[in-house]
Write a structure and sequence with these properties.
Strand content: 15-25%
Radius of gyration: 20 Å
Low-confidence stretches: none
Oligomer: single chain
Helix content: 25-40%
Shape: globular
Number of helices: 9
Order of helices and strands: EHEEEHEHEEHEEEHEEHEHHH
Distance between the termini: 58 Å
């Protein structure tokens, strides 16, 4: 099995590459080669730039499947498909749950209504990211038909998670003590271990499956995230409710209650296609170990211990 990764140097790409290699696949990764960490020696690295349209490295070669991890606007996927044509058997596009309309109830599946497509945006924001991904999905489906697979991951975490706001709460739970919580403890989460997503991607290719799949993890809550992190670190916590407007806007993992149903999506289709579910506690334990091994660098968001103490003193 020969797999081409478009953007394999990042968090999700590395998980997919690791699983593909473990299952005997030959893997090539196409990227600028300027970010992320070094890939395993077995991976063929192809250098190019999707933003400038430099696909010269992809003009030869053929693969059983391509996994598009770095297509954010229709220009990206259209140019990649023009270059690759029928030299790939299946086109697996990594989309997002942002494609769905807002305020959906709990339990929705892959048939839920999507937002209106947007062909291009000057900047990817909360308002443009989802619609741009919708346009990408449409183009891939139009071009490849039954040879197209759409995967819509939930919020991802696990070892290697350098960007996710999950780490703020993991570290906060590990520190123990009184925790300022600007939401209800029962706020739902549905975190996806990146390794589970990697396994699903490779299995979908091996089984030659088409269609759309919601790659989502187990049902949890913000309280469980904090308390499990504390327990794993030998700490105890007391969750203290504080006003939502007492913390900076776009605070880590905080979402309006009207959108909580989006963290309770139906995982049945992806699970039946072979997506495993790493136990929540194991995902957090592995994330903590990885974060400690890299020295726990500053995250650059959330409350500092000093600011949190001031806020708690007002509660």
């Amino acid at each position: 099995m020969r797999i081409l990764m478009l953007g394999g140097n990042g968090f999700v790409g590395r998980a997919a590459i690791a699983d593909a290699l473990e299952h005997g696949a030959e893997v090539a990764s196409f990227s600028r080669g300027k970010s992320g960490t070094d890939l395993p020696a077995e991976v063929t690295q192809l250098i190019g730039d999707r933003d400038t349209g430099d696909y010269a490295a992809l003009r030869t070669g053929d693969w059983d499947a391509v996994v598009d991890l770095s297509g954010y606007q229709s220009k990206h996927v259209d140019e990649a498909m023009d270059v690759l044509g029928d030299r790939v058997g299946r086109y697996v596009f990594i989309s997002s749950h942002a494609v769905y309309i807002r305020d959906l109830p709990a339990g929705t599946d892959e048939t839920a209504a999507r937002r209106a497509p947007m062909r291009a945006a000057d900047a990817l924001t909360n308002e443009t990211y989802g619609p741009c991904k919708v346009a990408c999905e449409d183009d891939v489906l139009e071009r490849y038909g039954d040879r197209a697979t759409i995967v819509r991951p939930g919020r991802l975490t696990g070892p290697g998670d350098t960007a996710s706001t999950v780490l703020y709460w993991v570290r906060r739970g590990a520190r123990g003590g009184r925790v300022a919580l600007p939401t209800k403890p029962e706020q739902p989460l549905q975190l996806t271990d990146s390794r589970d997503l990697g396994r699903l991607l490779v299995q979908l290719i091996a089984d030659d499956r088409s269609g759309a799949f919601n790659a989502v993890g187990p049902f949890t809550t913000i309280a469980e995230l904090i308390e499990t992190s504390a327990d794993l670190s030998g700490s105890t916590v007391e969750l203290v409710r504080v006003p939502t407007d007492a913390v900076p806007p776009r605070f880590p993992l905080m979402e309006p209650e009207t959108e909580w149903g989006e963290r309770r999506r139906n995982p049945a289709k992806a699970r039946s296609a072979g997506m495993p579910v790493t136990p929540f506690r194991q995902t957090l334990a592995d994330l903590i170990a990885w974060d400690q091994a890299r020295g726990e660098p500053d995250l650059g968001f959330g409350l500092s211990p000093e600011d949190e103490q001031k806020l708690l003193g007002q509660s």
